[in-house]
Each structure stands twice: as structure tokens, then as C-alpha cells.
Write a structure and sequence with these properties.
alpha/beta; Rossmann fold; six-stranded parallel β-sheet; five-stranded mixed barrel; 21 strands; 21% strand; binds S-adenosyl-L-homocysteine; binds iron/sulfur cluster; binds FE3-S4 cluster
């Protein structure tokens, strides 16, 4: 099996030298080049795009919000479902026009799609206007890819399959001054039978706790109020390190950093969601009482076929314990409808689990076969129309629950972080991550405030500043 590699300071310095060479190239022509990064998929990709922007800025680029007229376009892609890939191919095709109007435009594809051989081959043969492709394992080498393309004009593909690496110290252009993603680990070892992620993001590897803590301290010092720790399965944090620290220990350490902030995390796999984790969440006020705990299916038979390593009862036990130690816990989850061979009775078990748990909100997906995963070749007799019907029914059940739970907020006063604006409203997030709209002055942005909830819909809340503010 291939080994995780830790990228050395010399290797990183060599990449930064490429950045400076590129910067010099543009500077000598007195041009400030523009770069556009388009992000698909999950928070991992959002965080990676911040690193790509960091490297582009280091190379002298200014970031723009459109592909038209950009000197570099980077498509940071997601491979989780077929629909996501189709969108990328459509948008990639449209870039032939922006490139025709701006011939010096260089186009790159990266992210999870770039980890699939058939995608790379398709780009090579059918998308000749794409100048470079690099998989997530090669993100840190983007300056080298960009420099080759700029200075040799050759199409460049950095897509070798690897176990993955850990890189510390890459420049990162954060999207927000209030909220930050912090990757605590990369990759996944779980191989759920439907999922492409372990194939495109490599093996599970954890960052050292000292590096994570230093990054969190620095973020909090710079005014960040809300940190989300990222990993495909944060509960297995540290298993590959020899530090004697598990995820709950790491959370407790971060929660003791001085300052006014909240930490949250995703994603937590139910398989190793421990009582210790929930007790730690309950013990520290700076850990948000919010849990994203994907269940995928309410049927133990389907869960086994998915290779999830827990059954319905074990999942419910974990949720019940978490709720018992955190009565105000906001719970969200992911669910897949129409996994190969899912029967009507098994689907009904998913519905009954949703009704029993009563999630605040759910991310709902119809099974999408991914080439190379075991589930893609499983017998799947259920017609598409039937899957769509199950999906609609599930959404209706959940919307009803979300609406009811949101109504229960009315009259409550909650501490929220005011984080932006939406038309004439300020936007705020409850500790549990629910969106609140309220009227008020923009000077409140960046502060925590007590907000009394006055109205609710299925998706969001409205409120006003509580009297004492
Ligand atoms: N690591 C996270 C999930 C990351 S992918 C976890 O294990 O919980 C986000 C969600 O996409 C998954 O939870 C699953 O619900 C959905 N998903 C993944 N592969 C899928 C597929 N092939 N078809 C449909 N949904 C899928
Ligand atoms: Fe995919 Fe399962 Fe890993 Fe989540 S835990 S990323 S669903 S393989
Ligand atoms: Fe998509 Fe990759 Fe995330 S496949 S969901 S962007 S890990």
C-alpha cells in the first residue's frame, strides 16, 4: 500500500519559487493578471479553493469573480454524483468561448473529478482548451503546473494516483474574516460502497495537533469567531498518529483557547461517534451544540450493504445519548434514497427513523452510481420514477418536521453571530447553525448578539435584537 508523504519545507519552497517566477513574468509586462476559481462540492473543496487562491495571489494574480477576461480559470470539481460531474463538463465546454475572446486565458481542472482516470482521459481528448489538470494530491504543486503551462505552452497533467500527502504552510486566501474552515485530516478509509471519495482523496491522514492548534490560535487572534473543523470522518482523527490524542481530546484543547468564538465540525461518522465525544461537546461552552451525523438509511440491511459499520439501533443509541447530554442539540444528517435493492419496506424504515429522530434539516440524495465503486455494479431493479417518488415523499416528511422545529424557536432568545447582509436584512446564525434574518445596522456584523426569534419558515428564522442589547 502506498504511504502518506509529508511535504518538506524544501519542496514547498520550490513551489513558492515558481510563484515568484510567475509574478516576475507578469510584473515585467506591467500587467496585473486576473484569476477566477470556481468551486463545486463540499467544504473540503471550499478550503482547497482558498489554498488555490492563496497560491495565485502569491503568483501575482488578483482574484476576480467571473471567467470572462480572466487569465487563469480553475475549476475545482466534485465527483460525488453524476449530476455534479455533468454540470462541470457543461461549464468546462462553455469556457471555449471565454478563451476565444481572451486567448491568453489558461484553464485548469482540479479537485475530486481530477482523481478519476476516465475523467482525465476525457479532458485530454475532448476538451483541448483545458491547459492543465491536477488531482487533490497535487494541489500543492499547482504553481509548478501553472508555470509549465505559462512558459512552455504544454498541456500539463499532474494526476498520479497516490496515498496522499500532508502539506503545512501553504498560503491560503480566506473567504471570510469571521468564519474559517480548518482541515484537521484528509482522505477517507471507510469505503462506503456507494462513495467515490476514498478513491479520489486517498487514505486517511491527520495533521499534527500542534499545527491545528497553532492555526486555530492564529485565526482567533485575527478576529475569526466561528471555526469549522473539517474531515470526511473527524471521529477517526489521530488514529494514524502517535500522539495519544483522539478527536474529543483535540476538540477540548481548541475549546480552551482564550477568546470569544465557537467551534463546530463535520463530518462525524456514526460508526465511531463515542460517548466521550458527546460528553466533551456538552462540557465546553465554546463547542457549538450542533451535530451533522449522516445516517444514510434507516434499514440495517441497507446499512450493511453500504458498508457503514453500524445498524439502525446503534445509530439511534448514539443520537439518544447525544440528545440526553445536550438537550438543545441541533441535529442534521445525510440520507440516500434508492440504494441498489432498497425495498419499499426498507425505505419506510428510513422514513420512520427521520420521524423518530426529528432532524432540524437533512441533505437528501438519490443514489448515483459511481464508476469503480462496489455499489455501481449491484443489481438495481427499482425504476427511476419509483426512486423519485420515494425522494419526494421523504422531502415532504422532512420539510414538515423542519417547519415544526423552526416554529418552536418563536419567542426564544438565542445568542447568534451576525455574519452578513441579505438585501435589507442582517443575517445571523444561531449556535446550531440556523439562519436568522433581522433588521439592524451593519455595524453589528462580526459580533455575537442576543436575538429574539419572531417568525419561522421551513428554511429560516426571522428575529429582532433582544431588549437588553
Ligand atoms: N464523509 C461524509 C460524507 C461525504 S459525501 C460521511 O461519511 O458522512 C456527502 C454525502 O453525499 C454522503 O453523506 C452521502 O449521503 C452522499 N453521497 C455520497 N456518495 C453518493 C452517491 N454515490 N449517490 C448519492 N449520494 C451520495
Ligand atoms: Fe464516503 Fe463513507 Fe468516506 Fe463518507 S465515510 S467520505 S460516505 S466513504
Ligand atoms: Fe465532492 Fe470531493 Fe467533497 S467528491 S463532496 S468535493 S470530497
Amino acid at each position: 500500500m502506498k504511504q502518506t508523504t509529508v511535504i518538506s519545507q524544501e519542496q514547498l519552497d520550490a513551489q513558492l519559487a515558481f510563484c515568484h517566477k510567475i509574478k516576475e513574468f507578469w510584473h515585467s509586462q506591467t500587467i496585473t493578471p486576473l484569476a477566477y476559481v470556481e468551486t463545486y462540492g463540499c467544504q473540503q473543496n471550499e478550503a482547497d479553493s482558498e489554498r488555490i487562491r492563496g497560491l495565485l495571489i502569491e503568483s501575482g494574480y488578483a482574484i476576480t469573480d467571473k471567467s470572462e477576461g480572466a487569465d487563469v480559470v480553475v475549476m475545482n470539481t466534485c465527483a460525488i454524483r453524476e449530476h455534479a460531474e455533468q454540470r462541470v463538463f457543461g461549464n468546462l465546454g462553455a469556457l471555449t468561448h471565454t478563451k476565444r475572446r481572451h486567448p491568453r486565458q489558461k484553464i485548469f481542472l482540479c479537485g475530486c473529478m481530477a482523481g478519476q482516470e476516465q475523467v482525465v482521459n476525457r479532458v485530454k481528448t475532448s476538451y483541448p482548451h483545458v491547459d492543465g489538470v491536477f488531482s487533490t494530491h497535487h494541489l500543492w504543486q499547482f504553481p509548478e503546473v501553472l508555470s509549465r503551462v505559462l512558459f512552455t505552452g504544454k498541456r500539463t497533467f499532474f494526476t498520479a494516483d497516490e496515498a496522499g500527502s500532508i502539506v503545512e504552510g501553504l498560503p491560503q486566501q480566506r473567504d471570510s474574516g469571521l468564519k474559517a474552515w480548518v482541515s484537521i485530516m484528509y482522505g477517507c478509509n471507510n469505503f462506503c460502497t456507494y462513495c467515490i471519495v476514498p478513491y479520489v482523496r486517498g487514505r486517511e491522514r491527520s495533521r499534527k495537533a500542534a499545527d491545528i492548534l497553532a492555526e486555530c490560535r492564529q485565526l482567533i487572534d485575527s478576529g475569526i469567531k466561528d471555526i469549522t473543523l473539517l474531515g470526511q470522518n473527524v471521529n477517526s482523527y489521530g488514529k494514524d498518529l502517535d500522539e495519544g490524542m483522539d478527536f474529543a481530546d483535540l476538540l477540548a484543547e481548541i475549546a480552551q483557547i482564550p477568546g470569544d468564538f465557537l467551534i463546530r465540525f463535520m463530518t462525524s461518522h456514526p460508526r465511531d461517534a463515542s460517548k466521550k465525544l458527546f460528553d466533551t461537546m456538552a462540557a465546553y461552552p465554546k463547542i457549538a451544540k450542533q451535530l451533522h451525523l449522516p445516517f444514510q438509511s434507516g434499514s440495517s440491511r441497507v446499512l450493511k450493504a453500504m458498508n457503514r459499520h453500524y445498524d439502525r439501533q446503534k445509530y439511534l443509541d448514539a443520537v439518544n445519548y447525544a440528545k440526553s447530554v445536550m438537550p438543545d442539540l441541533v441535529l442534521t444528517s445525510d440520507v440516500i434514497v434508492g440504494f441498489p435493492g432498497e425495498t419499499e419496506e426498507e425505505f419506510e424504515e428510513t422514513i420512520s427513523l427521520i420521524k423518530e429522530v426529528r432532524y432540524d434539516s437533512l441533505f437528501t440524495f438519490i443514489f448515483s452510481p459511481r464508476a469503480g465503486t462496489p455499489a455501481a455494479s449491484m443489481d438495481d431493479p427499482t425504476p427511476k420514477e419509483e426512486k423519485n417518488r420515494r425522494f419526494d415523499r421523504l422531502c415532504a416528511v422532512q420539510n414538515n418536521i423542519s417547519g415544526q422545529l423552526h416554529n418552536e424557536y418563536i419567542g426564544k432568545t438565542l445568542r447568534c453571530l451576525i455574519d452578513g447582509t441579505d438585501k435589507e436584512f442582517l443575517t445571523a446564525r444561531t449556535e446550531g447553525g440556523r439562519l436568522v434574518r433581522l433588521l439592524g445596522d451593519e455595524s453589528h456584523i462580526g459580533n455575537f448578539a442576543n436575538i429574539t426569534i419572531t417568525g419561522a419558515t421551513t428554511w429560516s428564522l426571522t428575529g429582532e435584537f433582544a431588549e437588553k442589547d
